[in-house]
Amino acid sequence: MTGKRNYGQFCGLAAGLDVVGERWALLIVRELLIGPARFNEILGNLPGLGPNLLSDRLRALAARGVLESAAVPGDGRGRRYRLTARGEQLREPLLALARWGMAFLGEEEARGGAVRAAWGILAVQAMIHGRPVPEVDEAYEFRVADETFHIEVAAGRAVTRRGPAGAPALVVVTDAETFVSIGAEMRTPFEALISGRLRIDGDPEAARRCVEFMGLLDAAARRPDGSGEPVAAAAPPG
Question: Measuring CA to CA, which residue among 61, 58, 23 is closest to residue 43?
């Protein structure tokens, strides 16, 4: 990035951090991994980031080919930011970092930290990344606050998409805080079910496959009381 210090090392990690290691840079990339966004949309989704610093970060990331801006159809002055092909290459390492970082979330962050339902899209991608794909063709739909997205499993591959599934085998309804806390293993799906903060509609066997695919059965096994194990066997509420 022009005008900033760099690590001065002949190392790929150091070179990468020279590009995205500044504060807020990777969170801007996170927002654009969800989808293209306008300046004010990015700003509104990152509480604590000021407009001047956001402008600086966007310029720096654009200068290094991580993102680009494009005109908004029907709005002569509007610009929308989106990742370039090189920026999109950050998806896999960011998902791995997000999955690693889940272990550091706690009650303090849950009480006072900002949470956005759309972050659940990347949370799901992080949870299923590298895991064995169910040997079925089916879709799992998630309605997290005002966001809807789904995992589509077909031919041994799983794709996460924004929007509703065509004919989901399973529909999960919850709020953003509960969804993230389950992913962070702060509570199990079963605990969220019995508290009324999570609802599951659909095939119980699809529920078991989905929970296992997302690594949540593994999480339950790591709990001293094993309290998450019954979730896949629980009858979905009507």
Answer: 58
